[in-house]
Design goal:
Elements lengths: L1 H34 L4 H37 L4 H25 L2
Helix pairs in contact: 1-2
């Protein structure tokens, strides 16, 4: 499905961006350690903080995209899985009732 492919591409862009940012932050922190601006422990702490923040923002972005896709699907009239399950159950009950009525006719 095109919508699914689009969503996967957007998530991959987000993951790629996160990787690039993390790589650049590591390069900068390594350079600062090399120059003596910060010590290795401070660099590690800075990198850990930055990665935590990026993961949080990535999670927020994923939740945002999921909400957007749900809204688009709702606007298009695509039923939710729970609605489909409910309808399947109703169809099963109706089919049983029809079979029961047919069986009563033949008795």
């Amino acid at each position: 499905m095109d919508n699914n492919n689009w969503l996967q591409q957007m998530l991959m862009i987000g993951i790629g961006t996160t990787s690039i940012v993390a790589e650049k932050v590591k390069e900068v922190s390594d350079q600062w350690v090399k120059e003596g601006t910060i010590n290795p422990e401070q660099a590690k702490e800075m990198l850990d903080d930055m990665m935590s923040q990026l993961k949080l923002e990535q999670g927020n972005a994923e939740a945002y995209f999921e909400r957007q896709v749900r809204n688009i699907l709702r606007d298009l009239g695509v039923p939710r899985q729970s609605e489909m399950d409910e309808l399947r159950g109703r169809i099963d009950r109706l089919e049983r009732q029809v079979r029961d009525l047919e069986n009563k006719q033949w008795r």
